[in-house]
UniProtKB/TrEMBL annotation:
The organism of origin for this protein: Acidisarcina polymorpha
Protein name: HAMP domain/GAF domain/HD domain protein
Domain of life: Bacteria
PROSITE patterns associated with the record: HD_GYP
Signal peptide (residue range): none
InterPro entries the record matches: Cyclic_di-GMP/3'3'-cGAMP_PDE, HD/PDEase_dom, HD_GYP_dom, HDIG_dom
Pfam families (UniProt xref): HD_5
Domain HD-GYP: 272-467
SMART domains in UniProt: HDc (SM00471)
Amino acid sequence: MRPDWKRDAFAGTLSAGTISLSDIVSALSFALDLTEDARPGHAVRSCLLGMRIGTELGLPDQQLSSLYYALLLKDIGCSCNANLLCEMVGGDDRRIKRSVKLEDWRYPSISGLKLLWEHAGAGEAILMKSKRVLSLAMRRRRFRNELVRLRCECGVKVGRKIGLPEASVEAISSLDEHWDGRGYPERLRGEAIPILARIINLAQCLDLFSSENGTAAAMRSISARSGSWFDPELVRVARALSQQNRLWEFYGSGMERKVVLGLEPGMIVRADDAQIDRIAEAFADVVDAKSPFTYAHLLGVRDAAMHIARQIGMSGERLNLVYRASLLHDLGKLRVPNSILDKPGKLDFMEWQVVREHPGLSGEILSRIRPFQELARVVGEHHEKLDGSGYPGGLKGDQLSIESRIVAVADVYGALLEDRSYRPGRSRAAALLSMKESVPGKLDAECYEALAASSASGLPFARRDSSHVHRDMYG
Ligand SMILES: [Fe+2]
Ligand SMILES: [Fe+2]
């Protein structure tokens, strides 16, 4: 039997760390919002609503704790199906995902067809687009099932890696099941669906419906789906809370995250260094899973960065900083559609603009955690170059810390070793030779020499067999 969540994963360290687990997880949930093109703060607002419902139901503390983290991390598996979605629909996976969630695909409908027509086959000739839309409409249920199954499998894997309790993992895996047995992927019915999954499904839909059309429309939508999508008892509880003006309290106030941090059931769980590293590793998996061309990119960059850091004599807190920054530097890529990430040819101007936003986004997400300001700065600078030719800030020389320089060198090295859709990866020697042209103008000489020394010793960093589309100055 799996031990208790707090005693198991986190409780032994209540006084060891200074950062709360909820602070980290709620901030990183903004990265998960990007994968679904949800309004920023979707997971946090879902948590606010779901915890109100769970508390009103009188769930015990331990169950509420599992619900709390499952609500924040409900979309942890969502990056896994982005490539498949992009391939099948042929458009912006993020925009499609947002629309798909609100549509009832169980029955053919005009609105479903309109949605497919709007999103599928972007840029294709009319005949090709019509064929694609028809094919998707005919196979809509199987297609949706496949997407949800992929997301569930990934969510379970990453959730366990983080150390979530089994009740949270189970809830994340079942959150698209419907009360009437016509949901996804297992067609569970009624009380066979875990109660936490039923609450999460209702809470996330309340936020999505409300974000589209307001809270009154959201209440009408859940009432209309009571007994089909949602557990009627939960809908009754939500309606009662709404009538008492308690369901939507603080919703839309801009204070949702602060309120959610105060909602953590039981004692505040503090995260120690090992737990923070484990969460960083799990989120690196989420980012790398978005595209088949990013297999293990972040793990490879981490390995290269750690070798450079050790080679130049770094230790302790500075080493921790490099470890986490190298794993989290591409968080913002979760907002880049797969039609750009997986594109075999050159990017056009607008596509480049989207790519260039990702370091800033990575920094913005991490800056929500007060003790992570330095980490946020380093990830935000991973595409800056010493001569000011990088992005997003065009920072120069002394403006870039040693940690930023290490991650930048490791990132370029990783990108050069990895295969891309339009060219194979290079050998270590060829990658180092190519990088040498940028030393010391763009890349730090000390970091480059440290990398070259590590590489010469044959250390096993940067996954040579990975395919990776990474849009940098070499791409
Ligand atoms: Fe990047
Ligand atoms: Fe990268």
